[in-house]
Design a protein that fits this description.
catalytic activity; Flavoprotein; Flavin_trans-like; 7 helices; 174 residues; alpha/beta
Length: 174
């Protein structure tokens, strides 16, 4: 029997934005492109922003949010690439500032230092995106080689519809 080639491993970091409810679309698209996927969510995102059971069923792995204990084995292999989608104002600013007080942030800070490709789809309202700290954060992260999709505010259009969130763009950016 021939051994199956190991697929590259993608970390999907999920932050607490409303659009996170649709993260299954990103996971399916990544799997179609032959990524093996593990999800790391912020602690706030774990509080009802997406269906964790559905994501676990889809990826075949637990959703990670807390640090493992030193005695525990690493639950995921090291990443070949990382996608942050949706990325919140809070997480983008903390990441750029080098804060690592959640597993998601620690993973992002480390991945940048390991030269792992990172793609980010922000979901940040216009009023927050105008904050100078956010603009500085984007500049700093871009300077570290982090790739960003287009701005997305998460706000409804005048006709009541919501523009599509370009989930697959994250994969194109890698
Ligand atoms: C229903 C709801 C939707 C939210 N949507 C967004 C959003 O689209 N973008 C954003 O930056 N923050 C949003 N927030 C605020 C974040 O959840 C909040 O800043 C949180 O601290 C982010 O934590 P995290 O970055 O660790 O995930 C939303 C909050 C709620 C309650």
């Amino acid at each position: 029997m021939t051994e199956q080639a190991q697929k590259p491993f993608l970390y999907v970091v999920v932050c607490a934005a409303g659009i996170a409810a649709d993260v299954g679309r990103l996971i399916s698209a990544a799997q179609e492109r032959h990524w093996d996927v593990g999800v790391i969510a912020t602690p706030v995102a774990m509080g009802g922003f997406f269906d964790t059971a559905a994501v676990e069923a889809r990826t075949g792995r637990p959703v990670r949010s807390a640090w493992r204990t030193p005695a525990d084995p690493r639950p995921f292999p090291p990443p070949d690439a990382v996608v942050v989608a949706p990325a919140t104002f809070n997480t983008v600013n903390k990441w750029a500032a080098g804060i690592a007080d959640t597993l998601a942030l620690g993973t992002l800070c480390e991945a940048a230092g390991l030269d792992v490709p990172i793609a980010v789809l922000p979901c940040v309202a216009g009023a927050l995106a105008a904050h100078p700290a956010y603009r500085d954060s984007l500049e700093r992260l871009r300077g570290m080689g982090v790739r960003f999709g287009d701005a997305y505010t998460g706000e409804d259009r005048p006709d009541g519809g919501r523009p599509d969130f370009a989930w697959e763009r994250a994969l194109d950016l890698l």
